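Appendix C reproduces, verbatim, an entry submitted by the partner laboratory led by Prof. M.T., so that reviewers can inspect both the input and the predicted structure.
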Amino acid sequence: MNITIVGTGYVGLISGVCLAAKGHHVCCVDTNSSTVQRLNSGHPTIYERGLPELLTEVHSSGRFRATTELEEALGSSEIVLIAVGTPSSNGEIDLDQVRTAARQIGSYIKASQRHISIVVKSTVVPGTTDTVVKEEIEKASGKQHGDFGLGMNPEFLREGNAIEDFMYPDRIVFGHEDKNTLHRLETMYAPWQTEKLHVNSRTAELIKYSNNALLAVQISAINEIANLAAALGGIDIMDVARGVHLDKRWSPIVSDRRITPPILTYLVPGCGFGGSCFPKDVQAIRTQGMRLGLPMEMLNAVLAVNESQPQQVINIIEKDTGSLAGRTALVLGLAFKPDTDDVRESASLKIIASLLAKGSHVLAHDPIATENFKRAMGPSASQVEFLKSWRERVRDADIIILATQWPEYAEINSTSIEGKTIFDARRMLTPDSVACARYLSIGRRMA
């Protein structure tokens, strides 16, 4: 099948490479000629585990290419996926790129007799595909829906695990407004054997938002309980969490064996969720609900807890050790999660900003996200000492904060940590493993 994808960002590139790996011929379209040139040389423009190898494979096979010319790409395609960015602005998603893509596709349809299906892959609020996108295409083409197909195919990709998630999905959602588009989606995903859900485009859009919102609810709920545990004292929230996890509705017992599902990782306390999806998506669906006259009280609470959670790290350290002024803090991890260089909404941004405001000298390290983090911090990045190697600088730190769960940071106990304070914001360690240091974490005030 010939497929065009508009956009070569995270979703567009991962989708394109994986579809090509399954035997389709994919052309990704981007307005940036240097991005296109790089992709056509077999080099990815984003960091994702396994992507360089897979891109090399599909590029060498001739099944994947990139271009700046949308019309040329559409000339042989039966289906086009819109996978452009939908950044957040004041709690709402910005549809400018989606509108532009729809208009450009509409201009192509105007001069073509071919019937193609336009499928939105970008994350958009419910009601976008069958109103905004449809109207832009109709306006630019002078044709009506029926002369072209329309659908919505949400992505469920976890950064750091995106290749695996696309190649081995737990479900695929076919949002469609016509039978032609449903047929093309079925053909495109024929190589995949998994649950395939047929719904209209609005339902598909809401499935995506509901998925992320409910995961965010779990994270904020356990964090609020963790803050209560710390305030009470004498409780380790991880003991509470383990007691909850063993409920057979969370961890069912099948044939006398307990199953521990991955969903439980969202019921472990930490310093909040970040990245390009959860914060933006929860804000967007909350805003849409409020515009419709709904109070959206739970999502308001989820966002409020998450906004304040990184400050809990600073509050607990100050309560335990006193003023942070003039002290040296080593922050380990700048990406919002391991296996990605994405720093959007990273808790480390707030933690470091607070440390600087308290008068601390800040050392910081991340295996791959440092440059993105510097850009995100802006001018204040000059106040931070970014390290290429962290192990030999542990000795210089009074306080060490494990902020991202990179596996290498679990080796902290092999460095000189005696007498230092370690704040384990991601529960990577056990207190016994760093017994020579003062161990602190969210949801744990034992003395």
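The chain has 14 helices and 18 strands. Additional entries are available on request from the coordinating office.
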